[in-house]
Design goal:
heterodimer, A: mainly alpha, disordered C terminus, B: alpha+beta, four-stranded antiparallel beta sheet, elongated
Chain lengths: 502, 112
């Protein structure tokens, strides 16, 4: 039955498919199996960066009493994003802009009225992506690619979802250890709708900055600058952690950090490698550049720790910080720069963020409790990377060799003679910072009219056990099953009672 | 010489440490313990099954003091650890018959 349906669908698409056809011959003519499978693989890599990657990275960095809460927020935030993404947010980021127009023709006049150009093209019409045809049809982006895409909408939809989902999980690091769960569960979908969708449309979905020529390969602005900015504003509005938590916020497990950070690093191969939307030479270039930048930034941070820090010691968590800065800094540039540009950008970004982390953070932390320092390792690193691609973008690194216009597509930075790009990058960064800060502020102010943003002090003193009734590492001493449990649960309970020797 | 043992809420340990250091005291031992007093246990939920845990996590602080320091130390530890709610803990004092510092082999009051 299923096979018959499939054959019917392909016949409607106008292909002939016989028993001796190659597998690709039984697909619609626009579909390339290699690019589609790479897109789905890359998307899964990025999803793994969120769960379990960030859940373990942040889970390991918090004290024992906050592990469950942190992991819970990662899994619940990830889920909350997909619901709004499929119902309305994907089309707000990647659909028809508010100002109307079609895929080829926007309501946009180069050099025309700024306000009209900007607000016609800063967010898309909210529309559902639930329909079957909207999943199986050929993917398209308004002006996102210079070549027609060779994958279905579903794979592009999912790839873009995992980016939307990881962004709130990044700024989870700013607000963990005190934000109320119910606030988190409302804040995340609102933020995706009013902040993330706008960022995505502006730079990727064919919005204002995409028209103007600003570039962001995989989200140095849309994701990392956004997470840093919003996290910082949210940390300020939610208020600080408990004073005694701030004094002793000891990472409870460095091995967990190691697992989480490793998944984040290698997941980034999909994060940057998936962004040309083709299994192409530029995809491979982006993966190599990502790793070059990461090792350069990691080693820069370690060397600075060894020679300039107070303790003069190479630390593991310093290496992880450097790793994140490298990954973030190369994100806006991965498929636009060459290997030298990648490493140079990473060294510069790592040195800048290291200085901010070492000298600025102790002062700022007293005023705004950005618990994990997201504004540095993501916000500042994303800003550095976004500006540096305006300098190091190499026109010989071709993103799309064949395009509908006939000319290969590549970006050219200041170093290669085009200083225009750098100022585009500056303008896009300013837009993201202002919009994200203001809207994050408004969303949280509105939520705070209905419920306090922060947990009660009594709950904060206890942590996971007060909020969830669970502990990361429960003791089995003095424990017995109570209440009505299922048969299997009772059996477990009996064992527990015997084991406790009561 | 007296041995002071204080059972307090885990998150009050740093307050007690500060109070004791302000007093000029230079040593104490802290361990994680669990037990029950007037404050009964708590409920934990794993996969829908509820478990009653009879024991609360507490911190045990032990320090050795001169006889004349004891009442002042008790007052300091008590005020640092108190919240007024059930479950603040207990402090008890026992006479100590001997004390020896391992490094120097000093004995008695000299070893405090």
């Amino acid at each position: 039955m299923l096979a018959q349906l499939a054959i019917h669908a392909i016949h409607t698409a106008g292909n002939t498919c016989t028993a001796t056809s190659p597998p690709s011959g039984c697909q619609p003519a626009w579909l390339d199996t290699g690019s589609t499978s790479w897109q789905l693989t890359a998307a899964t890599f990025v999803a793994l960066m969120s769960v379990p990657g960030l859940a373990l990275l942040y889970g390991g960095l918090v004290p024992k009493k906050w592990v469950v809460n942190t992991m819970f927020m990662a899994f619940s935030g990830f889920s909350a994003v997909l619901v709004v993404w499929v119902l309305w947010a994907y089309k707000m980021g990647f659909g028809t802009p508010l100002g109307g127009g079609s895929a080829d023709h926007y309501n946009y006049t180069y050099g025309g009225n700024f306000f009209k150009n900007f607000f016609y093209n800063f967010v898309g019409h909210p529309e559902t992506s639930l329909r079957g045809t909207s999943e199986t049809s050929q993917a398209s982006l308004p002006i996102g690619t210079a070549a027609p895409l060779s994958q279905p909408t579903a794979s592009l939809f999912y790839f873009q979802f995992v980016f939307a989902a990881i962004t709130p999980l990044l700024f989870l690091g700013s607000v963990l250890g005190r934000i109320k769960i119910r606030v988190w569960m409302i804040f995340v979908p609102l933020w995706t709708t009013f902040v993330y969708a706008v960022n995505a449309m502006l730079l990727w979905g064919g919005g204002y900055w995409a028209h103007e020529g600003a570039i962001d390969y995989s989200g140095g602005y849309v994701i990392h600058l956004a997470a840093g900015t919003s996290g910082f504003v949210a940390a300020w509005l939610v208020g600080p952690r408990l004073a005694q938590d701030r004094q002793r916020f000891i990472p409870h497990s460095l091995p967990l950090v190691s697992i989480g950070a490793g998944i984040v690093w290698l997941g980034w191969n999909g994060f940057n490698g998936g962004d040309p939307y083709f299994a192409s030479a530029d995809a491979a270039t982006a993966v190599v550049n990502t790793n070059l930048a990461t090792v350069a930034a990691l080693l820069t941070w370690v060397v600075l720790d060894m020679f300039l820090s107070k303790e003069k010691k190479p630390t593991f968590l310093g290496a992880v910080n450097g790793m994140i800065v490298g990954l973030v800094a190369i994100t806006p540039a991965a498929g636009y720069v060459n290997g030298g540009g990648a490493m140079l950008s990473a060294v510069i970004a790592s040195a800048i963020v290291w200085c901010a982390w070492t000298y600025l953070q102790p002062i700022l932390l007293r005023r705004v409790d950005d618990a994990m320092g997201v504004v540095y390792t993501h916000g500042l690193a994303g800003l550095c990377g976004g500006l540096l691609v305006g300098i190091f973008a190499d026109p010989s690194v071709v993103v799309y060799p064949n395009t509908t216009s006939g000319t290969p597509f590549a970006a050219e930075g200041w170093w290669y003679g085009n200083r225009h790009l750098f100022f585009e990058q500056l303008g896009a960064a300013a837009t993201i910072i202002v919009w994200d800060a203001v809207v994050t502020f408004i969303i949280l102010k509105v939520i705070s009219l209905f419920t306090p943003l922060r947990m009660s002090d009594a709950d904060l003193e206890i942590g996971d056990l007060a909020v969830h009734g669970e502990e990361a590492y429960p003791s089995d001493e003095g424990v017995r099953l109570t209440g009505a449990g299922t048969t299997s649960a009772s059996a477990v309970g009996t064992t527990t009672v015997q084991g406790a020797g009561l | 010489m007296q041995l002071i043992t204080a059972i307090v809420r885990p998150h009050k340990v740093s307050d007690v440490l500060n109070a004791v250091q302000t007093f000029g005291f230079h040593g104490m031992t802290v361990s994680e313990v669990s037990g029950f007093g007037k404050q009964r246990g708590h409920t934990e939920i794993y996969r829908g099954a509820e478990y009653a845990n009879e024991f609360q996590p507490k911190a045990k602080i032990e320090l050795v003091a001169h006889d004349e320091e004891v009442s002042e130390l008790l007052r300091l530890i008590r005020s640092a650890a108190a919240t007024g709610r059930i479950g603040d803990g207990k402090i008890w004092v026992l006479p100590l018959s001997e004390l020896l510092r391992v490094r120097t082999a000093e004995r008695g009051i000299d070893a405090i």
